[in-house]
Amino acid sequence: MSEKDIRTYASGELDAMEARGEDKTDWKALAKMKDEDVDCSDIPALDDDFWANAELVIPKSKKQI
Q: What's the whole-number mean pLDDT along residues 12-39?
């Protein structure tokens, strides 16, 4: 996949695309899939090198108004 293939959409835009039938995802079939049926072979394992630079970030509490 190249940079030109990557698109960003707002939630409302995605809802409108789905309503117009422009959504190419078969959500019903996806919902029926079991976790073990999902092909994750293109996702690299998270090894020690990944975790060596990991940093726990806890967001500040939001002030209620």
A: 89
